[in-house]
Structure formats: structure tokens, C-alpha cells
């Protein structure tokens, strides 16, 4: 009985497969009708296998559905191909899936202009998940006086929209900046760049973008490099600001060794999602620079662009300014601090031997992070927990051009800078 049912069950393909263009820059409507009404299967479920691609693509994109209409995206510079078949399964087929023959349809817009008139090197970056910047170059056969326009559409817009913020070179549009695209994230963003020139037809460029695959974050912030009691190098940082989801980031860490006067040779250390890293003593004895960058991880995108590097160097007595450095020193050392005019908002530090000092810029202020007891000009000054008033001895021994005192019992020595001069101090017990 079962074999007789299978031989007798033949399913017809769908009918009247059609493709239409609603003018949405590559989003085409595909629809079909079910098999003939006289063929009914009360004990079976009827579904459809819908496949589509552009000519030249190796693989088909596949959708299993009971619907009769879909809107899917194509590259309109190439022919769109679709095919559909009926799938039947249930009691009428002994729960074996029966497939119909395929039906096919194609769609192609009439070609316009020569291929060499299409814009070149079209490139887009989604910066910080806040704005999309796309750039291009005129085609090889582009005449003088050409005018380019960029149009875009995504699900939720009633019609295609033109860019309202163009980037120009020599009076020609060569780029566009689009903002407020959060609704377009994780869906197709169809883009067309076309051009017009007197008496010349130019070929438009069509493409489909996925914003999350074009994301480029800002560089990580607040890079902190310190040395532990075991003389391990501790590296920590914070995710960049903006709309970039922190859980969507991964980071690459590299270090460079002191190469004397030669350029630093960077070595890969780690790619990770965590925002901290410990480098063992054996692997960092000659490290002079650390840098970190980030990009979208595989849990949020298929690909993405690396951010710029956040870099911190601390080689010899060379002054580095990078805005994010904090390095503690763990052994008693002599430290000399040259009071420079505050012209930079970045954090600065010097290194002498095994010791580091952190300079925290503020308007006309410098903080030396030292713990009690502190020697000023060779004489110890114990900083009480409640100290908040100036130390007369410290004031007289350092310079008449500045005031120094402990602040709020934190073990910090605060110096108000009034003129450039030298400050010297030693420490017995350090952080």
C-alpha cells in the first residue's frame, strides 16, 4: 500500500513565477502561485524551496517557506536568477518528502553606459557604529563635469533616499557620509552610485552592504601599563566610547623591544576579548612599548576593520605622550621631575632605571603618587592620614616658586606649578 501511494503521488511545481523591481536599488519582489487547484493533498503539508542568486555566483541562497512572495536582494549590475519547487510530505507520502520539478525566472535591468564609466574603488567604513563613510573614484571613461549621486534603501524606508552630505574633490562628489543608520544594522543596505554628464550615459554601481561587517571602532581607551610585585607586565585598557557594543569587540596586543636607535620591531602577543593581559617576566625583560587595537569579534560580525593603535612606550629617558599611561615603580629610586608648562592634555611619563613616575595633567597641577613615608630634599616627611595642610618644611626645601602638600590622606603629594624649575625627591616605601 505504501509503495503504491508513493508511485501515485506526483506533485506539480508552482506556477507563474515572476520577478518585479519596486525601485529599491536591488530589492526585488519574487512571487509565484501554488500548484493547480485540482491537485489537493489533505493529509500532507505543502511547502516551497525557493533559491536565488546573481549570475556568476557559485552558490544559491535557500529559503524554505509556505509563503508565495518574497523580497530579496540582488546586485542589479548582474542578472538575477531564481528557482522554486514544491515540497510535499505527510500521510499521503508515507512521511517521505516528494519534490516537484523546478521552475525558473531571471531579471536584468537594461544596461546603461560602458563598463569603464562606472565608479571605481568603492569603499565604505561604519565608524564606531555611528556613521557610514563611503568613498569612490571616477570611472576611467568619465567626462569632465560629471555629477555623482549616492542613493540608499533598507527595510523600513518607503523609498530610496539620496545622500545629503557629500564629500567633494575639485567640485566632484567622491564620497558620502550617512548617519542615523541604527535601523539598518543587521539587514541589507542597498546602495547605488550613479552619475550624469552632458550627452553621456554612465553605468551605475549597485551594491548591498551589511553595516556590522564594515564596522571600525575607535582605538581602545585608558591604556594602563604597570609592573606587579612578581615583575610581570600588567596591561589593561577600556573599550572605546560611542555606540560600539563592548561585548562585540576583540583586541590584539603587541609589544616591541628596545632596539636602541633602530625602529621598534613589533611582536604579536595575544588576540582576546578580555581587556587585561599579563606578560610574564621572562617575556618582557626588554619590552619598551605596548600597543592595543580592537575590531568587531566573530560573535557580532563576519568581518570588520581594526581600529588605530593605542600605544604606550617607556624606553630609557625618552618622554612619551600618549594620553593613557600609568606605570608604577616598585623599588626605591631617585626620581627627578622637570616641571614643564602644561600644554598637552595627554599623560606623560619618564623612566629612570627600574623606576617609573606618573604625571597626571590638570590645570597647573602635578600629582606624584607616593606612599608614606616620603623624603623631600633628603629629609623624611611622614604624611598623616588626615593631612590636608601644606608642609612648611617641604615648601621651603623644594622651591620658593611652588607649594607642596599631602592631599586628603591619600598619600599623594600635590604640587602647584607656578614656574618651571626642578623638583627632587626619594622614596623609602613605594606603591
TrEMBL record:
One of its GO terms (molecular function) is cytokine receptor activity. It is found in: Membrane. One of its GO terms (cellular component) is external side of plasma membrane. It comes from Cyanistes caeruleus. It is a single-pass type I membrane protein. It comes from the Eukaryota. This is Interleukin 13 receptor subunit alpha 2. SUPFAM superfamilies: Fibronectin type III. PANTHER family: CYTOKINE RECEPTOR, INTERLEUKIN 13 RECEPTOR SUBUNIT ALPHA 2. Keywords: Glycoprotein, Membrane, Receptor, Signal, Transmembrane, Transmembrane helix. Residues 13-112, 219-319 form the Fibronectin type-III domain. InterPro entries: FN3_dom, FN3_sf, Ig-like_fold, TypeI_recpt_CBD.
Amino acid at each position: 500500500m505504501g509503495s503504491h501511494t508513493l508511485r501515485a503521488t506526483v506533485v506539480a511545481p508552482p506556477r507563474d513565477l515572476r520577478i518585479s523591481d519596486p525601485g529599491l536599488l536591488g530589492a526585488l519582489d519574487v512571487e509565484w502561485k501554488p500548484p493547480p487547484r485540482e491537485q489537493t493533498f489533505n493529509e500532507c503539508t505543502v511547502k516551497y524551496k525557493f533559491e536565488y542568486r546573481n549570475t556568476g555566483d557559485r552558490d544559491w541562497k535557500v529559503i524554505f517557506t509556505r509563503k508565495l512572495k518574497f523580497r530579496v536582494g540582488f546586485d542589479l549590475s548582474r542578472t538575477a536568477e531564481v528557482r522554486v519547487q514544491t515540497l510535499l510530505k505527510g500521510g499521503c507520502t508515507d512521511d517521505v518528502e516528494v519534490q516537484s520539478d523546478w521552475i525558473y525566472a531571471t531579471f536584468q535591468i537594461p544596461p546603461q553606459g560602458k563598463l569603464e564609466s562606472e565608479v571605481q574603488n568603492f569603499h565604505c567604513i561604519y565608524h564606531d557604529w555611528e556613521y557610514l563613510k563611503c568613498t569612490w573614484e571616477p570611472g576611467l571613461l568619465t567626462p569632465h563635469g560629471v555629477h555623482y549621486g549616492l542613493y540608499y534603501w533598507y527595510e523600513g524606508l518607503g523609498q530610496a533616499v539620496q545622500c545629503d552630505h557629500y564629500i567633494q574633490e575639485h567640485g566632484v562628489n567622491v564620497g558620502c557620509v550617512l548617519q542615523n543608520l541604527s535601523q539598518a544594522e543587521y539587514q541589507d543596505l542597498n546602495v547605488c552610485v550613479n552619475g550624469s554628464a552632458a550627452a553621456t550615459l554612465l553605468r551605475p554601481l549597485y551594491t548591498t552592504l551589511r553595516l556590522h561587517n564594515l564596522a571600525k571602532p575607535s582605538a581602545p581607551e585608558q591604556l594602563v601599563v604597570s609592573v606587579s610585585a612578581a615583575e610581570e607586565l600588567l596591561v589593561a585598557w577600556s573599550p572605546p566610547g560611542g555606540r560600539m557594543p563592548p561585548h562585540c569587540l576583540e583586541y590584539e596586543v603587541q609589544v616591541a623591544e628596545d632596539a636602541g636607535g633602530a625602529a621598534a620591531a613589533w611582536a604579536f602577543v595575544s588576540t582576546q576579548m578580555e581587556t587585561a593581559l599579563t606578560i610574564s617576566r621572562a617575556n618582557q625583560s626588554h619590552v619598551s612599548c605596548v600597543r592595543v587595537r580592537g575590531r568587531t569579534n566573530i560573535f557580532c560580525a563576519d568581518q570588520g576593520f581594526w581600529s588605530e593603535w593605542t600605544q604606550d612606550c617607556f624606553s630609557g629617558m625618552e618622554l612619551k605622550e600618549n594620553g593613557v599611561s600609568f606605570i608604577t615603580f616598585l623599588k626605591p629610586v631617585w626620581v627627578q621631575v622637570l616641571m614643564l608648562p602644561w600644554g598637552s592634555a595627554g599623560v606623560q611619563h619618564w623612566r629612570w632605571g627600574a623606576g617609573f613616575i606618573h604625571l597626571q595633567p590638570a590645570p597647573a597641577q602635578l600629582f606624584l603618587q607616593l606612599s608614606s613615608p616620603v623624603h623631600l630634599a633628603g629629609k623624611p616627611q611622614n604624611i598623616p592620614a588626615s593631612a590636608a595642610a601644606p608642609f612648611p618644611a617641604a615648601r621651603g626645601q623644594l622651591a620658593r616658586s611652588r607649594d607642596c602638600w599631602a592631599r586628603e590622606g591619600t598619600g599623594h603629594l600635590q604640587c602647584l606649578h607656578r614656574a618651571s624649575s626642578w623638583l627632587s625627591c626619594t622614596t623609602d616605601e613605594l606603591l
